[in-house]
Amino acid sequence: MGAFNSLDLTIACPSCQVVAPREIQFRYGAVWQYRYELGDVLRWDRNGVGDPAASDVVVDAWLCECPGCDHDDRIALYVRENVLVGAGPVDDVPQLAELEWLSLPLEAPPS
Fold it and tell me: Fewest CB within 10 A of the end CB: N or C in the chain?
């Protein structure tokens, strides 16, 4: 993977359901071993990965080993306005398998 950033997040393991602190590794923003928590704003520099102007983005990330069962796997990381807002199953975003990140369409305004 090369250089990456990390998000520290307490999450249920998709394999054994143990809820524990986990590291999620990802390449988006200024990639230089930065550590983040949910709600943090991403740093950017001229060599950043992705698009700092994108409003809603999903990033292909890596969920590190579970302390209960050693499960690790890909996970989708969600970014809104350059803020880390959540993580979820990568299967929810089928196109993500071929891409490092994907700009999501803006939600339609309420009518």
Answer: C
